[in-house]
């Protein structure tokens, strides 16, 4: 990795702070194990479990759903290698990485879109973790159940208390920067397996150690409908992780080598994600057999267990898992993205505080409780992550041929490689707008879930094609390609800002 000391000259100061600077030597501490745990933490949450079992609602049988999810996992693996290798080589966080594609100021468009989605999910995941804690509290102190009714702004008194405690704990953890994020991920990722395996064993025992892999929700589908549902499930798996996939450079930049990236991705995605999917489907099929409902979440299932000790342990583990995924996926990204808007005034920590405050303002329990809000807002904005992915990949691998002039990512000089037109790359912005509108229409307009599931691949493919065509038509790609040869940053050096202190 390039030694990255960048002099904070006046022309660059507006685009640079210690957190957005390239990763310095000695800061590449995220080994394969850490990346493995990162993907584990990403998968191990109540939201991920709910998503996996929710795919049964599309009409596939248990084994068909599991196979379709596996195909999606393979697609996610491929995408993570493309983004991860690029992020590790350039050594900068996602919003800075995007400057080479969208322009030094245009990068704020995809960055804030990603950050906006993460803010909502940060609040939602904190709320889901608080539900697990409430189950724990009521089981230990039954008298507290009276605190779960009433309240204001849609939250009960106990709901507000648990939510705000978890909110404060997460903010405290993040105040220590990216190194504590790595340690939190290393802990939260593996520990949830204890709870999930224990829950699976208990459910299998309730089901007399037998499940029907052919069980399904609804009637048997025709062959064309089965194929359509299979494709939909596979792409929904990728779409579910589309946000973390786009900003994976936030973490990959701390890896010491391309080999570490690929090994961590291989362990964390095809191996771990597949295992989690299998376990989730097993628990769901057991629930379908025992309780007649395959869509019960782990908290609801745990609440049915007689043993107080088991309930307490399980609730704690699920809360840890949900907080873990929140810290990794829904806090780091908006912290960097918000900082990128005004690096001179907003640090990673300040961006994190803004993220945390916004997560309360959006009243996440109301969003989670509204299918309309989830589908039309989060679904619509989330569908834009496909176009962003396609545009970034085409620009980095095909137009710039994996070359980036790191120093110019922080330069407002009109002659800089990534200044384009007043800091915006017209080709990338146009490609994002057009493909984004199409992706959003695919996601929101059709009544068929099988069609809406195609928003990610349609957006990614269209964004990639438009970026390729428009860049060559406008000449932006050729100009960037000529001026983005790899340049050791130490050749432009000073010592005022060194690496990332996040």
From TrEMBL:
The chain crosses the membrane at residues 38-60, 67-86, 92-112, 119-138, 158-175, 187-204, 224-246, 267-291, 311-333, 345-368, 374-399, 427-445, 451-470. The keyword Lipoprotein does not apply. It is a multi-pass membrane protein. InterPro entries: Pur-cyt_permease, Uracil/uridine/allantoin_perm. One of its GO terms (cellular component) is plasma membrane. Keywords: Membrane, Transmembrane, Transmembrane helix. It is found in: Membrane. The keyword DNA damage does not apply. Belongs to the purine-cytosine permease (2.A.39) family. This is NCS1 family nucleobase:cation symporter-1.
